[in-house]
Recover the amino acids of this structure.
């Protein structure tokens, strides 16, 4: 998605653009796969901030509805706290507050106050973090960003803020996980972790017609309409550099021969670790990743929603294991995506595809994923069974596992980290590297390891930022 967005924006700036992709289709983690008649979305599943996709089509003078349609989900998530009856959280804000009033009456005013405060702050992101990259420390003195930071107490840790606002275990469990999507632990300072739940409630959670995979397909169609050239099965094996300048790339042709392609600018939309490591990156600790299991099942559960969350009673221990001791949680919180609830075409009749996702630290030696992945798999299967979803071996058509080494190997994510480096290697502990390579001229960066961060909407912006910088530099060198 970062590469597709970069290609579209670079083309809009007037560059001749060639997109090189190692696989036989575009979309990366957001591309769909078919297994035994099941249509799987094995990567992102929670769609928010769809207006940021709309912005891409608008910039190209097109209407998104010609390419891509979204529908707002009525149920934000089915939440099941161990030992309690499941709860369907409505996607609409007031209805959600009404449901919370019944189960956590003591915390509803806090949720309301949080939402009100962020209502007054969220628009500042459109003028700061969503508008441009921060190239150096002093750029962070941006008035819109400062104003945003000061709307919440920027000196208190996220966990302290959550604990002060909410006493209900369900709300704490729900909120604790969000900093990991920004590569941070819940000990990080500042309000960034509140933004995803805020956007989920304020702007809605959406499904795309045709599944998540419809998003990169729509971007590819727009890119082709604009004249971007695509080359698939074209793995870039190295950059072609002269002194401190990038001259192009080398790709490994199918025959095994090396092919050199020259370019005025290169946008690297894979983790820089793969082709142009950032200074010191080899030794950086990874931040967070996912461990996933995907099952095709010959049975259904009518109670499943599109998004489902299982929270074991001792969830606090699980968060300590992830954030403090950097272990695979003994009893993980499991997010379960059941796409057939909103998109019946995604599973054959009478079947379900169930996608279990658990937040875990990236690939660190002590986690020993290669030898322990089946032990970890058992932990996830145990929790899914505890949540009431069990099946006989005869009902299981397939199981598909992804873990941090898988993302490192297939997509080039540094030690499997989906959210870039850990806090130590970020500007103010918040912002990853900007979208211009710090050492190599003519090289621009997009994707989840750089600004503004990971997740589909953010990597879409990262592609735009990289193309904008390339265009700005090209203009400067001409004048
Ligand atoms: C299980 C899971 C759940 C997630 N859930 C969500 C969610 O609910 N919502 C959300 O918004 N985000 C979610 N994310 C994060 C989101 O998927 C990513 O941030 C986003 O898809 C990353 O896009 P990208 O373009 O930066 O990278 P990628 O999707 O990894 O794309 C990189 C592309 O580069 C190609 N490539 C790599 N190396 C080379 C090379 N040498 N030469 C040529 N091509 C190469 C790859 O084949 C790939 O196509 C999730 C991620 C995962 C894995």
């Amino acid at each position: 998605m970062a590469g597709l967005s970069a290609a579209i924006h670079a083309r809009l700036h007037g560059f001749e653009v060639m997109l090189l992709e190692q696989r036989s289709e575009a979309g990366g983690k957001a591309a769909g796969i078919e297994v035994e008649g099941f249509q799987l979305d094995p990567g992102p599943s929670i769609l928010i901030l769809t207006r940021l996709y709309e912005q891409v089509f608008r910039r190209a003078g097109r209407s998104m509805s010609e390419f891509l349609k979204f529908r707002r989900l009525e149920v934000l998530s089915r939440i099941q706290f161990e030992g309690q009856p499941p709860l369907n959280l409505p996607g609409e804000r007031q209805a959600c507050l009404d449901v919370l009033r019944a189960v956590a009456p003591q915390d509803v005013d806090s949720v309301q106050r949080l939402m009100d405060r962020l209502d007054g702050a969220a628009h500042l992101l459109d003028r700061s973090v969503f508008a441009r990259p921060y190239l150096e420390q002093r750029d962070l003195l941006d008035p819109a960003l400062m104003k945003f930071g000061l709307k919440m107490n920027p000196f208190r840790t996220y966990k302290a803020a959550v604990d002060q606002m909410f006493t209900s275990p369900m709300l704490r469990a729900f909120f604790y996980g969000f900093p990991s999507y920004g590569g941070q632990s819940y000990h990080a300072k500042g309000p960034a972790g509140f933004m995803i739940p805020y956007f989920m409630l304020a702007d809605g959670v959406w499904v795309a017609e045709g599944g998540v995979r419809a998003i990169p397909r729509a971007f590819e169609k727009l890119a082709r309409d604009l004249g971007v050239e695509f080359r698939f099965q074209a793995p870039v094996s190295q950059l072609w550099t002269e002194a401190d300048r990038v001259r192009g790339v080398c790709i490994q042709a199918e025959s095994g021969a090396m092919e050199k392609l020259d370019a005025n600018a290169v946008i690297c939309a894979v983790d820089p670790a793969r082709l142009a490591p950032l200074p010191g990156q080899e030794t950086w600790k990874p931040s967070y990743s996912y461990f996933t299991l995907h099952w095709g099942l010959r049975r259904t559960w009518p109670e499943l929603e599109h998004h489902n969350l299982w929270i074991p009673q001792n969830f606090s221990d699980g968060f300590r294991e992830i954030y403090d001791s950097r272990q695979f949680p003994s009893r993980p919180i499991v997010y379960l995506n059941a796409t057939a609830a909103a998109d019946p075409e995604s599973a054959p009749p009478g079947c379900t595809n169930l996608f279990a996702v658990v937040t875990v630290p990236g690939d660190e030696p002590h986690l020993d994923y290669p030898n322990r992945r089946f032990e970890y798999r058992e932990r996830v299967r145990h929790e899914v069974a505890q949540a009431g979803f069990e099946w006989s071996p005869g009902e299981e058509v397939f199981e598909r596992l992804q873990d941090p080494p898988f993302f490192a190997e297939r997509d080039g994510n540094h030690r499997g980290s989906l959210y870039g480096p850990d806090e130590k290697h970020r500007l103010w502990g918040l912002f990853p590297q900007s979208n211009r390579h710090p050492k190599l001229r003519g090289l621009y960066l997009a994707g989840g390891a750089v600004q503004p961060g990971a997740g589909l909407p953010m990597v879409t912006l990262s592609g735009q930022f990289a193309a904008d910088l390339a265009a700005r530099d090209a203009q400067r060198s001409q004048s």
Q: What stands out?
A: The two ends are 32 Å apart (CA to CA). Residues 301 and 352 are 8 Å apart (CA to CA). The first strand starts at residue 18 and ends at 20.
